[in-house]
Structure formats: structure tokens, C-alpha cells
Design brief:
Elements (H helix, E strand, L loop, with lengths): L7 H7 L6 E3 L12 H8 L6 E7 L2 E6 L13 E5 L2 H4 L4 H5 L9 E9 L13 E6 L3 E6 L24 E5 L4 E4 L5 E7 L1 E8 L4 H14 L21 H15 L2 H12 L17 H9 L4 E3 L5 E2 L8 E4 L2 E4 L5 H9 L2 E2 L1 H7 L3 H13 L2 E3 L1
Antiparallel strand pairs: 1-9, 2-3, 2-4, 4-5, 5-11, 6-9, 6-11, 7-8, 7-10, 12-16, 12-17, 13-14, 14-15
Bound molecules: succinic acid (SIN) and cobalt (II) ion (CO).
């Protein structure tokens, strides 16, 4: 079991999205949820995103996974990074769960890295919030102030930046954690062969929001209202200010209507950037089979990384699940809350919830989609 050894409320008020923070002994007696050889096993898989970074003289080279043979890399100056380990390795779920004091819609993934002495990804800036948690081994981290940094060597194709003057320079040991908000440059260097965990959180950009709205309007064949004007400019080659404003007003009208923006946000923010490990069943479950399994003590477990989101102020009773909309018209309001917040349902809870026929159907749907399994 993992428990965070700091005041999460105080952290949210003072540091979250604002300032980096070193949290020594954030986990007491931290035990790695995964071993290096198990991580290497995940990195062999085609559908799992992984890469090796080689530390070169003043440069870093990326080798994209899958990675099958580590012999060419030697004993030092390389690091293996595996994304979305929480999707593929259920034993990592308890570690991810403790970060649910930050809402699920923000959560990106658990990236696990194995680094040999000298290994690191180089100085860079991320556009997401990250908690860097140290497992076994030791790594030294430097964090710089927020600012304008040039791409390393003037190469705009790299995420690497020039070196920076650190405001934090710290060695992390097992259970220590470093929180870095978006935009703060950082670099890690490995002192002793290490396993580390990056718990990442994202938020949508204007580009993603606008394209989410566009997708929704196309899918639902809505937003077809056209611009009208009763006054035209006297110059043929002019688009006047009043017409520019009128067109933007048409857009704004959409953005102020919850019936448009709520499903857009729900669908967009319940999607996962990384492939899910769907637990596809052999055949469809029947409700009798489900009830029987629950009566025999089975529990319903959502797969790792699945996002189930409820929208506050929604005019409909529904959940947004991995980009899909699932309506539960007949359920009580607090049932919707339970279904969104709970990742697993023990047999008693699930049986009690199944008394509402909509919920029994919902559980069956989750199982049939491979979004949940019976454990
Ligand atoms: C690393 O573990 O070195 C990479 C993680 C990060 O910088 O976000
Ligand atoms: Co980073």
C-alpha cells in the first residue's frame, strides 16, 4: 500500500501549477511496484511506447522501442523509459491511486524509467505537470526558473534546451519526490542505477479544445447556423470590423451553450493519449452470469488508465468514458458519482448497485467493451 507523507491540500494551495517542490520522504519505506526486468519485458512489446536515451558527449540520442536487446548499451550512460505502465502492469495501480487527489481528467500516465549511472534525458521543458518519484537508486535533479530557453544547438526539432542555472539541485533517494509544474526546465542525472516514476498530468490546449469542438459539431451535424448581416461595406475588398465581430459572436454563442461544450469537454478529457490494454471478453456476458459471479465474490475492476468522468452541471445523467458517452437516465444522482469515482467495486457494492437495472447494464457494457474485468 502506498500513502503520501505530506499535506496534499497545502501542496495544492501553494505549489500545484505554480512552483517546483522537493518532497523528501514523500513515501515512507517506498517499495518499487515493478522490477527492472519486468520493465524491460514491457519494453519488448510492440503496443507499449518505450525508448532508450543514450547520453553522448554533450548530446542525447533516442532509440525508439520496442527494445529487445540491451547488450549494445553497456553498463552506463543510458536510460530506458516506458510510458503508460499503469495500463499494462496492474500492480502499479495502487501507486497511481494515491495521486487521485488531483482529478482523473488531468492524469496522463505513469512513466517508469530504468537508468544506469550517467543516464538521463538531458535538459528539457515539459508542458505538463510531473511528479518525479525516486525508486531504488539515486538520481540528481536540477530545476531552473521558468523563462525563455533556446532549443539546444538551435535545433527546433529537439525538446532539449541549453543548460540553465538551477534553482533546485537535489539528490533523490527511494521515496523522495520532485514536483515540477509546466514550463520549468529540468534535467536528471543518474548517480546509482535507478528506477524512477514520472506521474504526469496534462491539460488541454486551445488547439485541442477547438478541434474537440469541431469534431463534436461534425459528428452531431450541429452548429450549422450561418452568419447573417443586414449592412454591407461600401468597399468591395473589405471585411469590416462589425462583420468580424458578428462571426466571432456566432462562435461565442456555441461556447456559452452547455449542451455543446459539456459533451465536448467530457469526450475530449476522458480520452487517453496512450493505448489501453482492453480486456476483451470471450463472448458477451449475460446479466445472470454477472450476478452469479458477483454472488460468488467476484469484483468488478476497471482497466488501468480508463477515464470515467462526470460533468458537473450536466443536464443529462451520463458518464464520459474513454471518449464515449454512456447515458444512465434512471439512476440516482449519487450512483453516478460512485460510478465515476470508484475504480473497483467489490461484490457487495456491485450487487447493491445492480439493483438499479441501468447500473447492471452499465457494468455489462464495461465488461463487453473490455473496459473492466471480473477479478
Ligand atoms: C527522467 O526520468 O529522466 C525523465 C522524466 C522527466 O524529465 O520528465
Ligand atoms: Co521532464
Amino acid at each position: 500500500m502506498y500513502t503520501l507523507n505530506f499535506d496534499q491540500q497545502a501542496f495544492l494551495e501553494t505549489y500545484w501549477q505554480k512552483q517546483p517542490l522537493v518532497i523528501k520522504a514523500a513515501f515512507k519505506d517506498f517499495a518499487d511496484p515493478i522490477a527492472a526486468d519486468e520493465l524491460a519485458g514491457l519494453a519488448c512489446e510492440e503496443e507499449i511506447a518505450s525508448r532508450i536515451i543514450l547520453t553522448k558527449q554533450n548530446n542525447w540520442e533516442i532509440i525508439q522501442g520496442p527494445i529487445e536487446d540491451y547488450a549494445p548499451f553497456g553498463e552506463d550512460n543510458w536510460q530506458l523509459l516506458v510510458q503508460a505502465v499503469n495500463h499494462w502492469y496492474p500492480d502499479s495501480q495502487p501507486l497511481v491511486d494515491v495521486f487521485r487527489f488531483i482529478p482523473d481528467w488531468r492524469f496522463d500516465d505513469l512513466m517508469v524509467s530504468f537508468a544506469t549511472p550517467g543516464g538521463g534525458v538531458g535538459p528539457h521543458i515539459d508542458n505538463y505537470d510531473v511528479f518525479l518519484l525516486q525508486g531504488e537508486g539515486k538520481r540528481r535533479w536540477k530545476v531552473g526558473p521558468i523563462g525563455n530557453y533556446s532549443p539546444r544547438g538551435g535545433d527546433t526539432h529537439t525538446a532539449l534546451i541549453d543548460d540553465f542555472e538551477p534553482i533546485i539541485d537535489v539528490v533523490l533517494e527511494a521515496g523522495d519526490m520532485l514536483y515540477i509544474p509546466p514550463g520549468f526546465p529540468h534535467r536528471g542525472e543518474t548517480i546509482e542505477t535507478a528506477l524512477s516514476y514520472s506521474i504526469g498530468f496534462r491539460a488541454p490546449s486551445q488547439q485541442e479544445l477547438i478541434s474537440g469542438i469541431a469534431d463534436h459539431l461534425i459528428d452531431t451535424n450541429s452548429g450549422l447556423k450561418r452568419f447573417t448581416s443586414t449592412q454591407e461595406p461600401t468597399e468591395p475588398g473589405l471585411l469590416p470590423l462589425t462583420q468580424q465581430e458578428g462571426m466571432l459572436e456566432l462562435l461565442r454563442e456555441l461556447l456559452t451553450k452547455p449542451e455543446y461544450y459539456q459533451p465536448v469537454l467530457g469526450q475530449l478529457l476522458s480520452q487517453n493519449r496512450f493505448e489501453l490494454d482492453l480486456c476483451e471478453p470471450d463472448g458477451e456476458h449475460t446479466s445472470e452470469e454477472l450476478l452469479e459471479a458477483l454472488e460468488d465474490g467476484a469484483e468488478i475492476q476497471r482497466i488501468g488508465g480508463l477515464k470515467v468522468i462526470r460533468i458537473e452541471g450536466d443536464s443529462q445523467k451520463r458518464l464520459f468514458i474513454n471518449g464515449e458517452i454512456y447515458c444512465l437516465d434512471e439512476v440516482e444522482a449519487d450512483t453516478l458519482t460512485t460510478l465515476a469515482n470508484q475504480i473497483s467495486f467489490d461484490s457487495d457494492t456491485a450487487l447493491a448497485l445492480c439493483k438499479q437495472p441501468d447500473v447492471a447494464e452499465y457494468f455489462l457494457w464495461l465488461l463487453d467493451q473490455g473496459y473492466a474485468y471480473l477479478a
